[in-house]
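@channel sequence for tomorrow's demo:
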Amino acid sequence: MAFRRVALGVVVLVLAVVGPAWGEDDDVVVRYDNHKLVRVYVGTWDQIDQIHALGGLLMSEHEGLGLVDYLFPPEAMPGVGELGIAWKVLNDDIQKAIDAERERLASAPPVDERDPAWFTDYKNLDAVNAKLNAMAADRPDLAQVFDIGTSLQNRHIYGIRITGPGTNKPAVQFNGCHHAREWISVMVPMWIADKFIYEYDSNPTIQSLVNSVEFFIIPVVNPDGYVYTWTNNRLWRKNRRLNAGGCYGVDDNRNYSVGWGGGGSSSDPCSETYRGTAAFSEPETAAMRDFTLANPQIVAVQSYHSYSQLFMSPYGYTNSLPADHDIFMEINEASHDAILAVHGMQYDYGPIYSTIYQASGGDTDWYYDATGAFSFTTELRDTGYYGFELPADQIVPTCEENFAAALYLAQWAASPVKISFPNGQPTQLTPGVAESLTVKIRVVGGTLDVNSPTLYTRIGSSGGFTPNPLMALGNYLYEGTLPATPCGKTLYYYVSAATTTGIVGLSPPDAPTNTYQATALPIVTVYEKDMSTNPGWAKSPNTTPNQWAWGVPTGGGGEYGGPDPTSGYTGSTVMGYNLNGDYANNLAEMSITAPAFSCAGLAGVKLSFYRWLGVEQAIYDHAYIRISTNGLTWNNVWQNSATIYDGAWVYQEFDISTWADNMPAVQLRWVMGTTDSGWRYCGWNIDDVKVWAADPNGCPADPGDLNCDGVVGFGDINPFVLALTNPAAYVATYPDCDIMLGDINGDGNVDFGDINPFVMLLTS
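structure tokens (generated this afternoon):
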């Protein structure tokens, strides 16, 4: 790479350095005049070597196959064009943005640490530390500054502990700036701390969380590198270790022990992803390790990075999925939704490996494997044009949207008992038939009382709940029984479990004030295929190749997101998109369509099936479920937005009533494509497809329910007397009811012989 270096106002010689990193002394100031931020589509690892040879400096968080951002000197651009890969210039001269940022910061007036205007621009390490001290001084009852250790250059790594009165609480850690140039990753954890301190008295949600959770906020993990970006090289990534051979810096986020030395990290001391000589060789990562291990109450960790707008969970070093993948995805999705709701900004989500690239030796994997904490990495704004020079006017919006996700994670961590339903929950029951319910119960930061998991049920809207112990199945799974419920009646239920220290978890959280419910109604099955035989669905295009086929999946592939299944959810066969392994790249849209079925006379139509899905985020690959009522116009019932890899058979249920209710001809279509990525996933596998609705005839009224309100009670006394004494008046008063509901003894007449049976119905 060739660039101009300026030190003490003197222009020095232009140096040419091969590779994406170089040795830099502390008295060297680096400029990037006319350097271009370029997004390239990397198809092979050889192409990465060629990019390095051209002087490409890694700008993305990770490096691998797919879309990666690099900074190229102007003289390298002809060589980029000769690589034969797709590329796009995002920023034609990155130094202009750096110069504008420097000038703005140099001319900015002083701002008090307590002033909200503190967040209108970036702050150096001294300003960050001053604000930490100011917050602790303002609220010593809530906050204390702590020191986890020192960096290579003996700078202190400070954090702030925030919590309200009380002890024995779960803790959440927020950290930023593993990578020095990611300035926005400093501002977000500082915003979180500011909100917790200064809105504690005025915001009931914040006060409740601060009282129930202990927060550790470490805004600058890599202080030496951060200072260097303010003084010498705005785009410096690593710490400031002088390596053998003269190159500087170890990537602190490749220096943790889990997966250390694997793909997505480098043994080259000049590389931007140099992992160091050994796991925890760097004082910054060793300090983070020691601090976390000394605080086993930490149940969740959020690490902030930039840029790409992603919310990610383990793993990064392997495509294997963690045992708690379902919980991780629940949190990922909820955090995505919380961020989106603030400013409409889209953050894709999923495991690090499949959502961005392989990255080994990262902190997120270590926190989960070494401590059991649920750990996450957020790539903050933006998606490319500004790179690390995110404009100052985006600091506050970025902080606001990520604070919403931080609140969700804190609320999640506040209750150590996690209850979920991996096979879904019924909304309708078969009348008179008991049904099983699978529950997953996991305790974080504590131990489950093995005798506590209980399912509480009640038929009808009044009366007490009946406790029913849940039976342990192993692997955090439990089974309960939803009791046989009479036709037309509603079952109310909730689940409870507790830790050995007596902390109770409920699902839903405010039970029994609010509960889950399901109504027992006869079901009409409109269409059903268990895939034990070929359903004969129509392919489009009806040419070869079309990846859709019926048969036994081979379990092949597994390049990203793991292998396909080796059998269906029930039986051996499925309808699948590429039964033999991972689907290819650059494929056109292909679909499989079920024949038309009638939903005439039905309301509340639903679609259910089991899926095994692996698909990359929607900007690359596409998956859909579509519906049509005329065979010509198709509407999306569902489409992917983020990267999804189920890793197991997952129950799916969709309300398709908007399109299907009372329609004489309905068709469903599963779609895969287009695919446009360097990564291959397994695509779709589908089993046990069912379309159903409640019987429009409903449940027959109970004998004695003379006012037809669904309940035999004292409200039926006057109608019963009227049916006995004046049948014509009864019919006129209750035109929608059947007078024969008064025939309690079943002799075919409504007469005085029904009085005693009616009284028995009311009283017993």
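heads up for whoever presents: The chain has five domains: 2-101, 111-237+279-414, 418-520, 526-694, 714-763.
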